[in-house]
Structure formats: structure tokens, C-alpha cells
Amino acid sequence: MVVFHLLVVLFLIATGVQAGELRTGTLTGQMKIKGGGPLGNGQVFLFRKSSGPPPSPDRYWRVPDEVVSTDVEGRFTAQLLEGTYYLGASKRPAGKEAGPLQDGDYYLPSEDRKGMMWEYAVKNGETTSTGTIAAVVPYRKGSDKTGGPLTAIEGVVTNAEGKPVERVMVFAFVSPGMIGKPLYVSERTGKDGKYVLRVHSGGTYYLKARDLYGGGAPKVGEFMGGYGKTEATPVVVKTGETLKGIDLRGGRFEGRGPGRE
């Protein structure tokens, strides 16, 4: 996530906005488990409202714009660009990485008990407090109660020989360049190479497969793949539809230049 934020900063500098001119503020607060103690050593997710739909972790996984850790008391502090942010949080068993929720995780549902989103405005040079949010609960797959159909893209990730690739993720971008932060990410593929990428709504997406979560330049040996033979091919899905047969192919990155480094 630090890499994604760095890309935003570099873009702003390249377009004439210097780092000293960035309008930033601070968001602080405390996360607690509903009916229990603090969400110590967990993660808080910040989603910029202007960058995409509100998070809905039981229906799709939007990639956060920023991620910060909580301390042992569940307290957090985030330095953010000025704007309005949706809030999320989770805590996973030791050794588990960021990404779509799995059974056994603790998470913050996307709405409070009144049905309102966790939404906060961050203003330049000011500190905004969320207060104490004691609403984190255990996650169970299928906990979504809306009853509405999901919007998703399904397929198989294979290597150059056509064999399924295990433990890679599929990322959805909204521009063909696929540079910077993706909007959505799937769970990791199994031994059969199958993936399910859930999105908020229908639209045109461009897909990339990687085995590293967090972006940045590829490392030697990392799997890289995409949808389209020679260039990114758009995938068009309708709201409420599961589009199947969108298969991605790729291979292990061998490096750049004569020394392949």
C-alpha cells in the first residue's frame, strides 16, 4: 500500500504539485471488538470516496488507498490527503496477508447499526477523530444479508504452457494502462488456477494477475499475467452478472536488461 501511495505522490509532483503543497490532514481513532477488547495489532483501511465505491468486504474487496496499523490498544493515526474517506478494519491470524476476508478474520462491517457508512472528512492541517468504534466482529463467508446478486468475473490463470497457476491474485483496473492502484482484487487462486473477482457494479475493467499484493515493480521470479494476447483487452460485465470464461495467461518475470536483473 505504501507503493500505491508513492505512485500518487509521484504523479502529483510530475504534474507540478510539489510535496510541500500537498494538502494533508490527520485521522485518528480507536477500534474495538464488539462486546470485547481493543483490536490490537490490526489494520485500518482508508478508502478515498472520490476514487471508487464504498467498501463492502462481504460482497467485494476494494483495494484501500491507505492502510495503517493499530497499536495494542486498537488506536491508530493516519496522515491522509485532504478529502472524504470510508473506513474499514480487520485483524487476521498471524502470518496471513492483506486481501479479501476469510473465515476467522475480525472485520468492521461497512455500515454501523443505523445503516450509515463509516465516513469521515479529512481537512488540510486539521486532526479528525473517529472516536472509539466498538463494532468489529468475526467474519463468516456468506454473511451478506442484502440478498442482491453479486457482480463478478471468473476464469482460470495459466502459465505459458497452459497449466493452472496457484496462489496468484487477479486485480481489476479501470484504465488500460493498469498503472498505479487497482480498484478490486480477487482471492488467491487454488491448485486449479480458478479465480473469482467480485466488483461493486458492472463496467469495463482491465485485468492483471500477480502473486504479490501491493503493487510496485515486479521482482525476478514473480508471476505476471493479464487478459489479452498482445495488449490489455477490456472486460465488460453487467451489474448482477457473473461473467465466466475470462482466462488470464502469464509467466515468471525474468528481469530486465542483458543481465536479467
Protein described:
The chain is mainly beta. It is 5% helix and 38% strand. The protein folds into 2 domains: 24-138, Immunoglobulins (Immunoglobulin-like, Sandwich); 151-252, Sandwich (Immunoglobulin-like). The chain has one helix spanning 2-14; strands at 24-33, 43-48, 66-69, 75-81, 83-91, 106-107, 119-122, 127-138, 151-159, 169-173, 184-185, 194-199, 203-210, 223-226, 235-237, 242-243, 248-252. The relative contact order is 0.16.
**Radius of gyration, CA atoms, in whole angstroms:** 19 Å
Shape: globular
Mean pLDDT: 87
Q: CATH top level of the largest domain?
A: Mainly Beta
The helix content is under 10%
CATH architecture of the largest domain: Sandwich
Q: Biggest sheet: strands, sense, closure?
A: 9 strands, mixed
Provide the fold topology:
Layout: H1 2-14, E1 24-33, E2 43-48, E3 66-69, E4 75-81, E5 83-91, E6 106-107, E7 119-122, E8 127-138, E9 151-159, E10 169-173, E11 184-185, E12 194-199, E13 203-210, E14 223-226, E15 235-237, E16 242-243, E17 248-252
Parallel strand pairs: 1-8, 9-16, 9-17
Antiparallel strand pairs: 1-4, 2-3, 2-5, 5-6, 5-7, 6-8, 9-12, 10-11, 10-13, 13-14, 13-15, 14-17
Features:
17 strands; 9-stranded mixed sheet; 8-stranded mixed sheet
Précis, in short:
With 261 residues, this protein is mainly β. The chain contains 1 helix and 17 strands. The protein folds into 2 domains: 24-138, Sandwich (Immunoglobulin-like), CATH 2.60.40; 151-252, Immunoglobulin-like.
